[in-house]
Amino acid sequence: QGTRDHPPSHVVLRDRLLAAVVACFKRHGAAAIDTPVLELRETLMGKYGEDTKLIYELQDQGGELLALRYDLTVPFARYLAMNKITNIKRYHIAKVYRRDNPAMTRGRYREFYQCDFDIAGQFDPMLPDAECVKITHEILSDLQLGDFLIKVNDRRILNGVFAVCGIPDSKFIPTCSSMDKLDKIPWEEVRSEMVGEKGLSPEAADRIGEYVQLHGGLDLIERLLQDPKLSQNKLAKEGLGDMKLLLEYLSLFGITGKISFDLSLARGLDYYTGVIFEAVLLQQNDHVEEPISVGSVAGGGRYDGLVGMFDPKGRKVPCVGVSIGIERIFSILEQRVKASGEKVRTTETQVLVVTPHKHLLGARLKLISELWDAGIKAEMLYKKDPKLLKQLQYCEDTGIPLAAIVGEQELTDGVVKLRDVAKREEVRM
Amino acid sequence: QGTRDHPPSHVVLRDRLLAAVVACFKRHGAAAIDTPVLELRETLMGKYGEDTKLIYELQDQGGELLALRYDLTVPFARYLAMNKITNIKRYHIAKVYRRDNPAMTRGRYREFYQCDFDIAGQFDPMLPDAECVKITHEILSDLQLGDFLIKVNDRRILNGVFAVCGIPDSKFIPTCSSMDKLDKIPWEEVRSEMVGEKGLSPEAADRIGEYVQLHGGLDLIERLLQDPKLSQNKLAKEGLGDMKLLLEYLSLFGITGKISFDLSLARGLDYYTGVIFEAVLLQQNDHVEEPISVGSVAGGGRYDGLVGMFDPKGRKVPCVGVSIGIERIFSILEQRVKASGEKVRTTETQVLVVTPHKHLLGARLKLISELWDAGIKAEMLYKKDPKLLKQLQYCEDTGIPLAAIVGEQELTDGVVKLRDVAKREEVRM
């Protein structure tokens, strides 16, 4: 349940998608690492808040207690701490496992790919952060997924906002998780969840409401820096200063047109400590003025405390990264391919080796072996004496563009007849 | 235990290796499929004989009882049966899991890659089988691993040999597993294991001994076809006939020089029903005449009954395939790279964007963004005002061949200075 077999047509499309993502990661100088699917159970515990219950555990068959990785970020932090690496730019594309309620039509599975790019190390503020946002922008542009928006925020700004609204620290994460829904449901419903389920006072919720509905650019940052309450909060001020720097860098990258500083962005994970961001695809809708969001396809942020949790001396390695939501993007591309009627070839065979009559198996085997040894992608039918028509039909069915035909006459003349299957033209060579 | 993190230097080398393997699989017209790491526990039970105890089981957290796949062959057969596919040529490269005693120095892990190519379908005899052997030959040649030998045999021939030696069917698999050791230990020791542990009579063991020490080519097949006892056995005769056909096809492929029909080859797995083969690397040894084997690097065979085990009506789909022992090959290549002193680059960055003095961060961000958007692999240091020397040193350390330098003068002139890091030559452009 919640997993699936991928037939060749899937794999071809997925490989195409992953190749574009990897090309971008390499363009930014990242190296690839790989870690096991199996992690010690204790490595994963206490890293995912409430979602810890979604971790797949292995049976105790003797030896270490194991679990399947839940994401690639915690294994990355464990890897850095174990190997005392303080400086790396890496990508990792691999499957992760979650005992979630699958919603396969929306691209949510129990086994799915993550594509992560992270920069670890102590650097000047916001330079790696800006690159992660740039990468998100490049990938979504390269894949031509249509219009998109990258929302950015900072956990420190949220912390400051919550503090000045009189919300205790203990309610930070629960309140964030309510806020995360502002994407899908209107503020009134989010507000009543905050008051009803999360136990905020109606006044505090209203105060929050004034902030979290704000979004904009540098102008909004300037306004908030003038805010009499917020400007008194140390964390918020730090966050706003860095946010200003980030937007300046993104402006030099020429991508601010698709960036929105959005105070409602919270993101679920515990471990973020600074900048957070999330990319959503937009869809023009005839009935309303503004384009509507059709869901998040990438996200990331800064997590400066995670590596320290795995270091015996608690040494910190600041990190920032982005994860591309390949499964949702795959669903979109798949629908698009279906709609376009494009016939996706699942093999790359260039030529079928064909004999036009009986008793020529030996000639076929000799020729195909020559082709393979010359690096040419070639197939033949696994029949001693196949009919000519059947062989040509196989080309048409599987999209093989050429047939290399060798009969008695060709053998005598020391040539082959090369047939362009679509044009039905032949040359002797 | 038994798993490992792969640092960038590993991944680069492994990707190089896998690219060669995939290129060969695609050259032979194979499509890729992917199946989940998780399988239903019942799917894996009863397929691996004694080794079933090495399967990793997941904890019962509610829902289906799951296990981690042990190889790619059983999931492939399950995939064919579930999707009623009767005809496919596919490859699958993925990790499998075994609760084995790890022997990491010899490349034996609990999590490791398998690279499988299989042909499923009802075809004329030995054509797909010959292609699998050809693929093995191509990959080992392409990877330049040194001299190798591909041993071939047939389960039906072994069956016949055992029958005429008076060994009951029930002892077929245990006797095969003793025979498998003939590679490493002399016949006398294998014989005493057969008699002592496996309960064969000394006479039966001696009769087997006469057969299993035979190896050769077409001549040996002819001799065995004349063997008064063996030629009376139906299975052996079938197997010998097909073996003759196989060697004829391999001769047309021009590869019989590295093929040995070897009656001692048994292979461990239960599910083989026909041809089996195994490739071993050979090492010239000064002290002995014959080259010695340094271990198996690929193997495969025909399994015509496996798919039927997953079909509710027991419909059979004949299959033959090969699995490339990528982990052992990786160990060999890794040692070779180490010995050669080759410095493997872990990133592909073409150019570092460099500023020679302060207050030029903006120029650097603008230029690098232009390069990225033009598809050029570019990096910069994540510092506002890095020293020129530090930047050039980074190029030397990481093997970046070019530095694009932009200072006040270059900005004024609208050019960049492109520096060849190794030659220390610069051009303005």
UniProtKB/TrEMBL annotation, chains A, B:
GO molecular function: ATP binding; histidine-tRNA ligase activity; identical protein binding; RNA binding
GO cellular component, one term: mitochondrion
Catalytic function, reaction form: tRNA(His) + L-histidine + ATP = L-histidyl-tRNA(His) + AMP + diphosphate + H(+)
EC number: 6.1.1.21
Domain (Aminoacyl-transfer RNA synthetases class-II family profile) ranges: 1-356
Superkingdom, taxonomy of origin: Eukaryota
Keyword ATP-binding listed: yes
CDD domains: HisRS-like_core (cd00773), HisRS_anticodon (cd00859)
GO biological process, one term: histidyl-tRNA aminoacylation
Positions with a binding annotation for L-histidine: 71-73, 98, 114, 118, 267, 271-272
Keyword list, A-Z: Aminoacyl-tRNA synthetase, ATP-binding, Ligase, Nucleotide-binding, Protein biosynthesis
Family: Belongs to the class-II aminoacyl-tRNA synthetase family.
Protein name: histidine--tRNA ligase
Name of the gene this protein is made from: Hars_1
